[in-house]
Amino acid sequence: MRLALLLTAAAVSASTACVPMGPYHHHPTTKADLAVGAVVGGIMLTGAVVSAARSEPTPDVESEPPAPVVVLPHPGEFDRAAAKAALRAVQYKDCGQGGSATVVLVFRSSGVVERAGVVGAHWHEAVSQCVVSRFQLTRVPPFTAERHAVSWKIHLPLALEVAPEQDQDQEEEPQPAAPEPVGM
b/e per residue, 6-34, with b = 16+ CB within 10 A? Predict the structure, then answer.
């Protein structure tokens, strides 16, 4: 009779309220867990043991293959063709009017512009700053040398000038005795 009352009390008092099982117990224990523990021959089972008996088996999860390792090629020499293509793509003609000048760029080995400036410009400083800001965004493939300098002739049309049929920009190696570019 006493066992029947205990089972009935366990069924009635079972709820989802958590009852802590001591300082080292990290699994919440319900009153139903305690009632089950009292029924089993007077031996108190911990919530972890009872929960382990009730826990559902973990489904077999197919492990995904590891992500492929991407091996980048070792950087080679400065790629002049890639630099030429990148420089041709720069949109600077809306910076203003003024004529011809040379943009000098120094690329780091990572392909990022380290310094940029304009040489031989006879236009306002704001136009030069606009041109420099556009060319500073140029990127080339990484290369083995520490740095590489490139000069690029550009032409901004004068107010009365008609746009030329062919682009006059061209790449050439900078002259060592060139004056210090604006913005370098």
Answer: eeeebeeeeeeeeeebeeeeeeebbbbbb
Q: Which of 98, 96, 94, 106 is nearest to 152 (CA)?
A: 106
What's the pLDDT tens digit per position in 13-23?
444 444 444 45
For 57-86, the pLDDT digits (tens) are 555 656 777 777 766 566 899 999 999 999
Q: Which pLDDT tens digit goes with each residue over 44-60?
A: 444 444 444 555 555 56
Residues 105 and 166 in one domain: yes
E strands, 53-141, are: 99-108, 113-119
- Count how many Cα atoms sit within 13 Å of the Cα of residue 173 in the half-sphere of its side chain: 5
| Segment (H or E) for 14 | none
- CATH at residue 97: 3.30.2420
Contact, 135 vs 113, CB < 8 A? yes
CA angle, 50 then 54 then 60, to 5°: 130
Q: Among the residues of the chain, which ranges form H helices? A: 2-13, 31-39, 47-54, 80-88, 125-135
